[in-house]
Amino acid sequence: MKSVFSIILYAMIFLCCCSKSSGGGPEQNSAVHVYYVSVSGNDGNTGTIDKPFGSIGKALGLVIPGDTVVLRGGVYYEQINFSKGGLLGKNITLKAYPGERPVLDGSNVSVSGWVPLVAIRNMRYLVLDGLDICNLSTSSGSADPEGIFIDGGSHDIAIRNCNIYNIRNTSPLNNGRSGHAILVIGSNSTTSISNLVIEYCTVHDTKTGTSENITLAGNVEGFTIRHNKIYNTENIGIIIAGGDNLNRTGNVAVNYARNGVVSDNELTNVSMSNSADVWGVGNYGAIAIYICGGAGTVVENNKVLKCDRGIGLVSESNIYATTTSIVRNNTVDSCWRTGIYMGDYLNYVGMGTKNCSITGNMLHQNNRALGAFGEIEGEIRLTEHCDNDTIANNIIYAGDVDVLIHKYTGTGSANIFTNNTYYTKGTPQWIWGFTSGPMIVNLADWQAACGGDAGAEIKSY
């Protein structure tokens, strides 16, 4: 006679065996599902690698936390709207099949209003990996084509290895020319967008008008933007911003992006000159990496080459100063105007740059064109209301006719300059407290004007 224990054990084995899939399609229990999609597939299929679905939407409609949707190579004329999120330790992943490149193409999408190709609205624990996202355009004013859009209190979102291009608004500036490759708006006043990662992506050949390519604004706290390449774009490359423009009803106490890292990115030819027919010849206003009313952001180990301006810790806000951010160990080379820009932006006077640090950067022969007032902006530019900032241990190579550091106004206080090294081909030049001069041409006078820079050196090259 069998023991009670044996009877229970046999029953458990029987139940376990009955819970397994009988084959023919992805398992429909708590096991991880992998669904496949192909442009030659069919939504009547089972979603296996041999019988893939024909649409991404079909697969995403079936996923549960922990599932993966794998896209075979080819062009998909779909808009993606994630309606399900994952759980801690159980991401929902949409990714490319190894060695293949799926393309999300927006050529057939009508853009009227703010329209994304990929929408992540108030979602969590999602991964997007290895997709081309492209060809979304409009000539309509007050419209905004977006490659990827993230909002609400979304968290634990990773965007990896994506290639975003040809996101374009071709309307005139006065009609509201705007677009974004990746737009992140923390629009929830109580829950921030957090644990956001954007890495190993490329963004290129866009027309974003008065907007930016990668934008974080509003209630966003905790992010990493690293190892991306941005090139041949019309306006700003990366911006970490206050939400007083894009999220105007947000809680002022938290309506700004903060406490993140922008590192190891390469930005080349981020310039309004790529749309000279729109902006005019010689209008070099785009900043490659821009902290604008953001806070607590570390910008490090980035390479900026031949952009309009290099790195900005600037405020275009009447509510938020740019604060408590660090710019360190970056290389800024051959930009049309300034290498590093601090203070207020034109027509936004009052908030400025507070308690920030500019350390260990290499600036090389920027200022290839004059500024808006016919002045040399300077390898490092300080405009209105820079307070309690530190500029130290930077290596600055002047061009043939260049200004090393240029402070435009008498506003600002308690800024610290120390141990900067200046390389010149002739007479060194600084400007302190004026738009266009007079020039300071020797180190002792510079140290007296700025009240510091002990340990500074001038070298020829």
Task: Explain what this protein looks like in three dimensions.
With 461 residues, the chain is mainly beta. The protein has a single domain, classed as 3 Solenoid (Pectate Lyase C-like). Helix content is 7%, strand content 39%. The protein contains four helices and 41 strands. Strands 1-2-5-8-11-14-17-20-23-27-31-35-38 form a 13-stranded parallel β-sheet. Strands 3-6-9-12-15-18-21-24-28-32-36-39-41 form a 13-stranded parallel β-sheet, with no helix packed on it. Strands 4-7-10-13-16-19-22-25-29-33-37-40 form a twelve-stranded parallel β-sheet. The chain is elongated, with a radius of gyration of 26 Å. The N terminus is likely disordered.
